[in-house]
């Protein structure tokens, strides 16, 4: 009974911590969007690379941390049981930090891409692409990728927390950090092209950000998540082709 109560308490603490970090991330994004909106009349408005990177990373935390909850809870459960058998204890936060580090690497790439697009006048500063043709190509690319074996191999890993933890388990703090980074890499393989669609709908369009985050959560957690991913891929290709046709017409 005491062990069960301890397990429930640990799960509650983890859920509350991840929910709190997610809420703080979205609060930052809301405040940031309001600040950008207040300066929307400034010509050529942009921001430093450091602030742009911070914006992307906080956005990835807010979007991806909820979908990592099942894997995080599974890691904590296995870790607790190993500790009960005398193995060394590793805080679950170490695993989460490894996961967020992987998305930090993505955020660095996204920052570079946004900087290049803005400099090439293909994107309005902190808004969206100015080229419907490029937007359509991104939708087609994201949609086609949704149908590939690589996408579904990564998605399967994200949807199978216990299998991932047991197959990739590594002892110690460094091992937990690496496990988190590896899980983050699978999530990148699953979702990176979906995140590229933020350039199309607007990086500070919070409704668009929330819609993509909700879709990621659904394809990872729904029993029919893989079918949802394929259906979304077909729809994205169709939308992309329509956008390209309009741009070329």
Describe it for me?
This protein is an all-alpha fold and 249 residues long. The protein has one domain. Helices cover 80% and strands 0% of the residues. The chain contains eleven helices and no strands. Helix 4 (92-119) runs parallel beside helix 8 (172-196). The model is unreliable at 41-45 (pLDDT under 50).
**Large-scale geometry:** globular
| Total strands | 0
Mean pLDDT: 90
Give the helix tally.
11
Low-pLDDT runs: 41-45
Rg over CA atoms, rounded to whole Å, is: 20 Å
Q: Given the helix and strand composition, which structural class is it?
A: mainly alpha
Main sheet makeup: none
Query: For the terminal residues, how far apart are their CA atoms?
Result: 69 Å
**Strand percent estimate:** under 5%
Total individual domains? 1
Order of helices and strands: HHHHHHHHHHH
Helix content: over 70%
